Amino acid sequence: QTLPILANVLFEHKGNTLNTIATDLELQISAKVEVPEAAAQSTTVAARKLQDLLRALRTVHGSTVFSRYKK
Q1: Which of 11, 23, 34, 37 could form a disulfide with 28 if both were Cys (CB 3.0 to 4.6 A apart)?
Q2: Residues in contact with 6: Cβ distance below 8 Å, sequence separation at least 6, in sequence order
Q3: CA 21 to CA 50: how far, in whole Å?
Q4: CA distance 18 to 33
């Protein structure tokens, strides 16, 4: 069975940066984006639920904001 933290994506807001981190202990993926400054916050989201939500957005709207970044 998967360790609970490995089934989640970490969203961490510090200053004006939003960090997103996911890992399976062999591979880690991280991304940083600038966002409006606010109090430091962090939360985790179930990776499977996030994947399903993003897939549903693409299905409903035909293309999402993420399609801009395809090469």
Answers
A1: 23
A2: 23, 24, 25
A3: 13
A4: 5
Place of tokens 């993926």: 29
Q: What's the CA gap between 65 and 71, in Å, rounded?
A: 14
Token pair listed for 2 = 């998967």
Under 8 Å between Cβ of 6 and 25: yes
Distance CA 11, CA 63 (A): 23
Closest CA to 25 of 10, 41, 11, 7: 7
Query: Per-residue pLDDT tens for 28-51?
Result: 999 999 999 889 999 999 988 988
Residues shown for the chain: 71
Question: What CA–CA distance (Å, rounded) separates 33 from 49?
Answer: 21
Going by their DSSP bridges, the two strands 8-14 and 17-23 should be labelled as antiparallel
Query: Model-level pTM?
Result: 0.69
